[in-house]
Design brief:
Elements (H helix, E strand, L loop, with lengths): L29 H5 L15 E7 L5 E7 L1 H5 L5 E4 L31 E2 L5 E7 L2 H8 L3 E6 L6 H4 L14 E8 L3 H6 L2 E13 L7 E6 L5 E5 L4 H11 L7 E4 L15 H13 L3 E4 L2 H7 L2 E13 L5 E13 L10 H5 L9 E10 L13 H19 L3 H8 L6 E2 L5 E2 L4 H11 L2 H14 L4 E9 L10 E7 L5 E5 L8 H13 L6 E4 L17 H28 L7 E3 L2 E5 L5 E5 H8 L2 E7 L7 E10 L6 E11 L6 H21 L29 E5 L17 H18 L10 H8 L2 E3 L5 E3 L28 E5 L4
Parallel strand pairs: 1-12, 10-11, 14-15, 20-21, 27-28
Antiparallel strand pairs: 1-5, 2-4, 2-6, 3-5, 6-31, 7-15, 8-13, 9-10, 9-12, 13-14, 16-17, 18-26, 19-20, 19-25, 22-23, 23-24, 26-27, 29-30
């Protein structure tokens, strides 16, 4: 138990109750969301609002000639239509948190002028009183496009013979190195396994796609309502682009239907909405529809990984090398820094003496990549956990024992790649996961089937450690203020996009102040109401934003004690605090008490603020999957999935479990269903959710969510990041399980029935009818340069062609 100040010598209780830490309080925001009363950007009604629709390139890579918007302008009711040539003073797009070095020579303009670099890039914009009319206008736009060769995969684009996507610049945008080269250690290692893995590109499919509404203000500034994860970062970007002080730009984030990383940046559509609202002096809105989101929104993952893992004959790891070519899509603004987390976390949970990671980011003619739930860490975990299973097969060793033998056990631990793990007990998490799936009995059943026949059964485990709270030492703002009636107003710079901040943040404040939860109200998501802030991503909200409120509340109590001591003319050490009241013991032996509201009424405003900059935290855990594979149809049935996560001290278990279920669903999606595929000419294949498959409730297996708790030593209440682990641990656990069932080294994700069925064709039947892997073949693998085992190889377009193109043709 921690204390406010020092214990009073006269016996007055100064202990904090922490009474809402670990309590599954129901989410405050759910009634409004479920009843449709919470407003999203699309729900906001402003008089004379114009809606935008975009004419987008049907080609992945082309030189742009004339873009003709005249027919759109003549359509009755259309307020205007513009191509890049009509708006020469449009600023290039700036985005928060990006490495500006990646921009050099690679500017992204709101409308493509001379060249388009991915199918769906905006060429013209139409404004009209309704979205339907604006879309009608966009369909009338025509453009001369001269096709160029597409570059779909990072390996292909990084080739010295690939055409340059930006004239005079390499397609390799950046190269980051972590640790020291380990070639000598790998050359001397008795056992070395090598493999290549593809993290297929995924599409952000939050319930609400991107959306923005802009209104000009009387002072020459503007107000923005936007579905976003970082309102203060967006304000800074927009203010810079339009030459205004940040105070003249107000950004409000209403209810958000999910984000998952895609809503951290500034996008061309946002810039055009602001520009046109100011030019036309009318409110302007753009709401992305599902077809736009599937064709043109940012992608996640998209890394090609090559690994080498060396060990001695007893399974002790000696060296590990990870080489990644990561696609950042057509522009590096939102995705260049994301793969750095892959390099930083390449060590995984293991005490490997030598680790080296080289991460290259590469531009390709696909939609730009950005953060996607877990960004960087799922890729790192998948690579090392798949390699560990391959090594276990090579050594004929139980994969769980191989992991136990190599876990990091002393903390803090500085990895060869420069991360400092704060705390952990990796073996405890693995043991709990294995116990929950009844590991030994499932192994016995697997042996029985392999000897007597039956559908293949497999067990997959994946142990992970992730980093949370980033970027390192990034700040978050929090303030706590007492109202005269004794209620408390908490302000947070974190942005809520559905993570239950209005419930959990007040739990933190109420615990510190030792008051009833219903006395605390949270204000956030508005740059006018909250003076500063950073963002919500990287599992940082509670451990950084919540900790800022924790520190501010503690400071407020210290201030209140000092004020009460002055009122009573006693030393502050004699003032206690409990249940929202200041207490001092009088000479008569009776307690004199004064509430926080009384202090405000007698001494003036009582407010404390904090900007908190903690180091990263390192949550961890182990996932275990039991799968059965249908030999006739290739279907994968997950019989059980167990997730053991350690995110330190859990403030609200119900909220953390909810985040776990959602994150696991997305992890299942990557493992079994999802992939953003492209045709040979670079155009996206998925245009509806019939083409891009998402897991449904019917696809969710029996889940068991378990916890261990290793407190974070770097904030006041021990919380680490939570909410992304399911995307990190689930895919390698499932793939490990399927490979274990089929007795193969690897099959590329997604493990669709077709992919698994093709892997079955590499089996032969023994005399007892059991399917046994034939070593004559290998598992399905992706065609170089493509994103899918079933996708066609990239086809040459031949000589460049010149055509007049309908912008909205399919």
């Amino acid at each position: 138990m921690s204390y406010h100040g020092v214990p009073a010598p006269n016996g007055v209780d100064t202990r904090r109750s922490d009474r809402y830490i670990g309590v599954p309080v129901r989410r405050r925001e759910d009634p409004g969301l479920l009843a449709g009363q919470s407003q999203t950007v699309a729900d906001i009604v402003l008089p004379d609002t114009l809606d935008l629709a975009f004419a987008r390139s049907p080609l992945a890579h082309a030189r742009v000639g004339e873009v003709d918007v005249s027919a759109a302008r003549e359509l009755p009711g259309v307020a205007g239509a513009w191509a890049a040539a009509d708006l020469p003073d449009l600023p290039p797009v700036l985005t928060p948190f990006a490495d500006e070095a990646a921009y050099q020579g690679r500017d992204r303009f709101p409308l493509a002028g001379e060249r388009v670099r991915f199918a769906g890039e905006p060429l013209a914009v139409v404004a009209a009183p309704t979205r339907a009319l604006a879309e009608d206008g966009a369909e009338l736009v025509r453009a001369d496009l001269e096709a160029r060769h597409p570059l779909l995969g990072p390996n292909q684009a990084a080739s010295s013979t690939a055409p340059q996507l930006f004239a005079g610049l390499s397609n390799v945008v950046s190269e980051r190195k972590f640790g020291e080269p380990a070639d000598d250690a790998l050359a001397e290692a008795p056992v070395v396994v090598e493999a290549s893995y593809i993290q297929q590109p995924l599409i952000h499919t939050s319930m609400e796609a991107r959306a923005i509404l802009v209104r000009t203000d009387d002072d020459g500034g503007f107000t923005v309502w936007v579905s976003h994860q970082a309102q203060h970062g967006l304000r800074k970007s927009l203010a810079t682009m339009f030459g205004l002080s940040p105070e003249r730009v107000r950004v409000v984030v209403p209810a958000v239907g999910g984000a998952f990383g895609a809503k951290s940046g500034t996008y061309p559509e946002y810039v055009l909405a602001v520009y046109l609202a100011r030019m036309l002096d009318r409110p302007v809105r753009w709401v992305e529809d599902r077809a736009e989101a599937l064709r043109t929104s940012t992608r996640g993952r998209a890394q090609h990984l090559r690994v080498r893992l060396g060990a001695d004959t007893d399974g002790r790891l000696l060296a590990y090398e990870l080489l990644s070519d990561a696609s950042v899509g057509a522009y590096p603004h939102t995705g260049d820094s994301v793969p750095a987390a892959t390099g930083a976390m390449s060590t995984g949970c293991y005490a490997t003496p030598r680790v080296f990671a080289r991460i290259r980011t590469v531009v390709t003619t696909t939609p730009p990549t950005s953060a996607y739930r877990g960004f960087g860490r799922p890729e790192a975990t998948f690579a090392i956990e798949r390699a560990m299973d391959v090594l276990a097969r090579r050594l004929n060793m139980d994969p769980a024992e191989l992991r136990r033998r190599n876990f990091i056990r002393e903390f803090p631990y500085r990895t060869p790649t420069g991360s400092e793990y704060d705390s952990g007990d990796y073996a405890a998490a693995l043991d709990l996961a294995l116990e929950a799936i009844d590991y030994e009995n499932v192994r016995a059943e697997q042996r029985r089937r392999r000897s007597e026949g039956g559908a293949p059964l497999g067990i997959g485990i994946a142990s992970y450690v992730e980093r949370a709270g980033g970027p390192p030492r990034s700040p978050e703002y929090g303030s706590v203020e007492v109202e005269p009636d004794g209620s408390v107003l908490a302000r947070s710079g974190s942005t809520c996009t559905g993570q239950a901040h209005p419930t959990v943040f007040p739990q933190v404040v109420a615990s510190v102040l030792d008051i009833d939860l219903d006395r605390v109200r949270l204000v956030q998501n508005d740059t006018r109401e909250v003076p500063d802030g950073f963002a919500s991503f990287g599992s940082r909200s509670l451990q950084v934003g919540g900790a800022a409120l924790w520190c501010a509340a503690e400071r407020l109590v210290r201030d209140a004690r000092q004020r009460f001591a002055a009122l009573q003319e006693v030393d502050v050490s004699q003032v206690g605090y409990a249940r929202g009241r200041l207490v001092v013991r009088a000479e008569s032996g009776q307690d004199i008490k004064l509430g926080l509201g009384d202090i405000v009424r007698r001494t003036g405003p009582l407010r404390a603020e904090e900007t908190f900059r903690p180091p990263l935290s390192f949550p961890f855990g182990s996932y275990a999957a039991v799968v059965e594979v249908d030999p006739e149809l290739g279907g994968v049935t997950i019989r059980k999935l167990v997730a053991v996560d350690d995110c330190g001290v859990v403030v609200n278990p119900m909220v953390v479990d909810g985040q776990g279920y959602g994150s696991i669903a997305q992890g299942i999606g990557q493992a079994l269903f999802e992939e953003a595929r492209y045709a040979g000419d670079g155009t996206p294949i998925a245009e509806t959710l019939l083409d891009y498959l998402l897991p449904t409730a019917a696809d969710m297996p029996p889940l068991e969510l378990l916890k261990t708790s290793t407190p974070n030593p770097n904030n006041g209440f021990g919380a680490k990041g939570a909410g992304e682990a399911g995307c990190i641990g689930t895919p390698p656990a499932i793939v490990n399980a399927v490979c274990d069932a089929l007795d193969v080294d690897h099959i590329e994700m997604p493990l669709t029935p077709e992919t698994v069925w093709r892997a079955f064709r590499l089996f032969i039947r023994n005399d007892r009818g059991f399917l046994r892997y034939s070593t004559a073949g290998s598992a399905a693998s992706s065609t170089p340069g493509s994103h899918s085992a079933s996708a066609p190889a990239i086809q040459s377009l031949g000589p460049a062609s010149h055509s007049r193109t309908d912008m909205n043709s399919r």
